[in-house]
Amino acid sequence: MITVEEHAPLRDLNTFGIPAFARYLVTIRTMDDLEELIHHPILRDHRYLILGGGSNILFTKDFDGLVIKSDLNGIEVQEQSDDMVNVRASSGENWHRLVLHCIDHNWGGIENLSLIPGTVGAAPIQNIGAYGVEVRQVIHSVEGVDLSTGSHRVLTLEECQFGYRDSIFKHALSKIFFISSITLRLTRKNHRLDTTYGAIREVLERKKISSPTLRDISDAVIEIRQSKLPDPAVIGNAGSFFKNPTVAGEVAESIRKEYPKIPTYPADHQQIKIPAGWLIEQCGWKGKTIGQVGVHPQQALVLVNYGNGTGEEILSLSKQIQESVREKFGIKLMSEVNII
Prior knowledge:
The chain is globular, with a radius of gyration of 20 Å. By secondary structure, the protein is α+β, with helices and mostly antiparallel strands. The mean pLDDT is 95. It has helices at 31-38, 41-45, 95-104, 122-126, 198-206, 214-228, 249-258, 276-282, 311-329, and strands at residues 4-9, 21-28, 48-51, 57-58, 63-70, 75-80, 84-90, 129-130, 133-134, 139-146, 151-156, 177-187, 236-240, 246-247, 265-266, 272-273, 289-290, 293-295, 302-305, 338-339.
């Protein structure tokens, strides 16, 4: 049976550590809980917010409605062959814990996504990606409930409409689809290891690893992330605050004339991707602190709460950064974080 908490604190449920409150909070621990919520009047009478690990959200004020927290757990094999395995994971599972579980079983495909904060349910919403890999490359299906109708749905890879940090869950199914589980299609042998990202190659070369395993790739990614990104348990943050912008080739080349060392990467539709962190750093923001919030000194893409910052202060800082990048480069940075 579900419990409805009133005036529930959210500080421990968001990685920025913002001291916001929800008018109501319901935690979903079983599918029976979810079914009960579908027929509960509180769902019909209030706007609601579906919350995973709180690692991609910024509260700028209290939430005057119902926060629905997923705490569904479980990892199971759906089917397997000699080469492949379909692994179903519940939405409340910790993402990194799932990655390690897969590596322990020698299931390949998500090792480059090690140490990404958040829950399994958030992974398809954001189409999480890192070090040359996106979760859409291994998604088989996404299962959940449309809270606006109460209907259960299983979406195929194509139906998820994945794009760069994008999916149908940010558009047609935004704020109404409760993801209960995802199924990943992973390799059991002949793993397609992606070591194209320069930093991964550097770590492997330093360790004199010429034939890396899944765990070697994961360990390298973990080492890189820990060297660049602050631990949310120590310093409040939501990881990358902005998306890496994509621009036309001629725009990138125009910038390159003044900044010959600008890093660029090919993107979809003959666009060029420019690291947002580089743009922010060129505008002088890296390591800058304003009151209790600031830009991390090791990674300009990460905005941080040093302890007592507010959501409004972080949002104000993000807008200042966006404006300076727009003025200097003519590029509009888009937030990767969901702002409430």
